[in-house]
Amino acid sequence: MSRKRRFIIPGVDSKLLVKDAAKLLPNPARRRFIAGGASLGALTLLTGCDVTDSFSAESMLTRISKFNDAVQAALFDPNKLAPTYPESAITRPFPFNAYYALDDAPDIDAADWTLEVRGLVDNKKPWTLDELHRLPMERQITRHICVEGWSAIGSWTGVRLSHFLQLIGADMRAKYVWFNCADYDGYNSPLDMASALHPQTQMTLRFDNEILPRAYGYPMKIRVPTKLGFKNPKYVIAMEVTNDYKGGYWEDQGYNSFSGS
Ligand SMILES: Nc1nc2c(c(=O)[nH]1)N[C@H]1C(S)=C(S)[C@@H](COP(=O)(O)O)O[C@H]1N2
Ligand SMILES: [Mo]
Description:
- By secondary structure, the protein is α+β, with helices and mostly antiparallel strands.
- 24% of the residues lie in helices and 22% in strands.
- It folds into two domains: 62 residues, no CATH class; 167 residues, Oxidoreductase, molybdopterin-binding domain (Sulfite Oxidase, Chain A, domain 2, Alpha-Beta Complex), CATH 3.90.420.10.
- The strands form two sheets. A five-stranded mixed β-sheet has the order 2-1-10-5-6. Strands 3, 4, 7, 8 and 9 form a five-stranded antiparallel β-sheet that branches.
- Bound molecules: the ligand Nc1nc2c(c(=O)[nH]1)N[C@H]1C(S)=C(S)[C@@H](COP(=O)(O)O)O[C@H]1N2 and molybdenum atom.
- The site of molybdenum atom (MO) has 6 residues, from loops.
């Protein structure tokens, strides 16, 4: 597909890097890495290294070779919280990323926007932005990791998704919460229920203590710090609680739907 982005890092063959890293990883981390799709993003997640050139690729491999199993088991544990960071660690400016330029990002007028709620929920009433802003909010400073080989630390404030799912009477035994976005070409992302209920998974309304800017998904995005960047849908217009796997923008192009811890 022409829209599929490639991992282009000067002086680095990403495929080879992933292969080399897999060789260095001790089991059971290697098995998990391969089962999880053996991506550059997973490597970034493991090491905390941004691969931007051959030098950083080299230091990533060095770091992996020093890992012990205990460290890796901790990093891949789905029941663990994602690491949080101090204010001083926030990346400024925070990168914008989508499959188009910022000028083409959805420009949503709050007055016209509602969040549609569908599927296995008791109350399908759509939510206005004001209503969402009146719900209890929490702030997190966590790392966002993109499969394209970069990562950045940001500050996100919003409503726990698990709280919202409770409010709407969602069937928590369902397999997925599926998100639809306002992008001109469409953007969808399925989230497994365990991750939807994770305490750090958030309906984000603010970024860096300001109203969520257009670049980062105004008026609402889903922040999942235990997952890779593409599992964090921006410009969300609908959520559906469902047992059916409905696919997603990147998932349909071969990225592992689990893509996280
Ligand atoms: N609606 C929508 N959400 C999206 C994307 C997108 O193109 N459209 N890109 C994803 C990817 S791949 C990344 S890395 C992050 C980027 O978020 P940021 O612009 O806040 O850095 O958004 C994710 N969510
Ligand atoms: Mo990404």
